[in-house]
Amino acid sequence: MAIPFDPHELDPEEYGETRATLSTDHESAIERVREACLDEGFGIPVEFSPSELLNEKVDADRDPYYVLGACNPRMANRALDATDGRIGGLFPCNMIVREVEPGTQEVYHVSIMKIARLLGLPVDDEEMDAIIDDTGEMVDAVFAELEE
């Protein structure tokens, strides 16, 4: 299947890629990201460790990797309306915590709102632009807190 654009030509800003490096152990990094998300108005309805699952099920020998599924109900509700419900296929807004090496964790996030825009999901462009701005401010605040 051909993609109608070259993904390598996209600026990470177009899909809301954000990263931070934390000098701490994996469990502490997870807790710090969880707290920063909660501080900025995100709930965490879903959490799981793909590395634990894969290490157990297929003996993958993966380094620690954890997903915190962040969600702000007001934003999710607005986004569902602005996309005729289709953005639900991208829910939740994942914050990834992966161990780069012992004592160094990378926190990674991409904006599902910006990805929905790139995919052409919005039926209300003006509202989607407002949602992208609002959620972008929230994510920026999370990463600013992580970088303190």
Automatic annotation (TrEMBL):
CDD domains: DUF302
DUF302 domain ranges (all copies): 51-110
SUPFAM superfamilies: TT1751-like
Pfam families: DUF302 (PF03625)
Designated name of the protein: Uncharacterized protein (DUF302 family)
Species the sequence originates in: Halorubrum trapanicum
